[in-house]
Amino acid sequence: MEIAENIKKTIVELKVDYIEKIEVANPGYINFYLSKECLQGQIIKIIEEKEKFGELYEKKEKIMVEYSQPNTHKEFHIGHLRNVFIGSALVEVLRKAKYDVVSANYIGDTGSHIAKCLWGI
């Protein structure tokens, strides 16, 4: 909570005009509320720019986004699925911004847990 409060304090001191309100919630989440003017401005930009909205015009470097990484010897659960969605969304946002993105899903099939499994077989 202390870190979240410090972040909130810093942002409030910066007087960021597009943030209307900031709240800290347990166990340390920070909720940002954008101003109506900011949202209206972005909606107008989306309408005007259509499919070009969000694109950056200068050439960007190559970025690799590695996500998910399920353990092959455990059940795949909702936490893994969340990481798949977040990673996939991040890849799409970066591609829209004209980054050269390499998307990777590393399967965690190395390490002592695999050696123990193989030894048991």
UniProtKB/TrEMBL annotation:
Residues 43-112 form the Arginyl-tRNA synthetase catalytic core domain. It comes from the Bacteria. GO terms for cellular component: cytoplasm. GO terms for molecular function: arginine-tRNA ligase activity; ATP binding. Keywords: Aminoacyl-tRNA synthetase, ATP-binding, Ligase, Nucleotide-binding, Protein biosynthesis. GO terms for biological process: arginyl-tRNA aminoacylation. Residues 2-34 form the Arginyl tRNA synthetase N-terminal domain. It holds the Pfam family Arg_tRNA_synt_N. Belongs to the class-I aminoacyl-tRNA synthetase family. This is Arginine--tRNA ligase. The lineage of its organism: Bacteria, Candidatus Portnoyibacteriota. The gene is argS.
